Amino acid sequence: AQKVTQAQTEISVVEKEDVTLDCVYETRDTTYYLFWYKQPPSGELVFLIRRNSFDEQNEISGRYSWNFQKSTSSFNFTITASQVVDSAVYFCALSEERSGGSNYKLTFGKGTLLTVNP
Amino acid sequence: NAGVTQTPKFQVLKTGQSMTLQCAQDMNHEYMSWYRQDPGMGLRLIHYSVGAGITDQGEVPNGYNVSRSTTEDFPLRLLSAAPSQTSVYFCASSYSKAYNEKLFFGSGTQLSVL
Fold first, then answer.
1. What is the pLDDT along chain A (118 residues), one digit of tens a residue?
2. For burial by CB atoms within 10 Å, which of A28, A55, A110, B36 has the most?
C-alpha cells in the first residue's frame, strides 16, 4: 500500500538553526516520484521539489537541500540557517503511476508545522 | 498570471444547504483536482479530471459532485452539506495527467457547515 509518513507533527527552532524535516514512504512500485510542498500561513500550497525514484542524487537549492535514500525509503528536507519566513507547513507526497497511465495516485503525508522564532 | 483561482475564500453553510465551490485555471492545464485538508489528516483527494468531459472519484468522493465542461473550470458541488464537510478545500491543476507533474494550487476555500 502507498503511504507517506511525516512523523514530526510540529517543530520549533530559533532563527539561524538548521532543521531537517523527515519523510518516510512506502510503495511496491519501482517507478515513482516524490515531492515536497510548502504551505505558508497564507494557505496556498507551493511546489518545492520533485524527485524520481531513479535519481538518488541529493539536491541543493540555496538554503534548502534534499536527501533521497531508497535504502531507507526516505526523502528528507533540510533548511540551513532557518529564517522566520520559512515558517510553514511542509508536505511530502508520493506519486505512483497506475496501470494504463490513465491516472496516478498521489498520496500526501500529514505535514510538519515548522515554526521559526526570531 | 492568475494561475488557479478559487472562490469563495470563506463560506458558512447550514446543514442541508447546497453550494458550489468554483475553480478556474488559465494555464490550459489538462488535469484538475479537488482536495480537502483537515487537521492531522493531510490532503485527501475528492475528485479529479483528466480533461474536459472526464471526471473520476478520488479517495473521499461521497457527498460531492463535479463536472468539467471546459478545460478551464472545475466546480465542486456539495448537494446537501453536512458538518463532516467542514474543511479547507483546495483546487489543484497540472499540465498533464502524468504522474510526475507538479501541482499548482489555488488559495483554498474555508468551509464551515453548522
1. 789 999 999 999 999 999 999 999 999 888 899 999 999 999 999 999 999 898 888 888 899 999 999 999 999 999 999 999 999 999 999 998 766 545 567 889 999 999 999 9
2. B36
Query: Helix (H, G, I), strand (E, B), or coil: what is residue A33?
Result: strand
The beta-carbon neighbor of B42 closest among A44, A102, A109 is: A109
The pLDDT of residue A104: 67
Q: Are the C-beta atoms of residues B110 and B10 closer than 8 Å to each other?
A: yes
Note whether B18 contacts A: Cβ–Cβ < 8 A.
no
Q: Tell me if A105 sits within 8 A of A96, measured CB to CB.
A: yes
Q: How far apart are CA B68 and CA B53, in angstroms?
A: 5
Who's near B60: CB < 8 A, 6+ residues apart?
B36, B44, B45, B46
At which residue does the C-alpha cell 452539506 appear? B81
Answer whether B42 sits within 8 Å of A91, measured CB to CB. Answer: yes
Contacts 24+ apart (CB under 8 A), B52-57: B56/A103
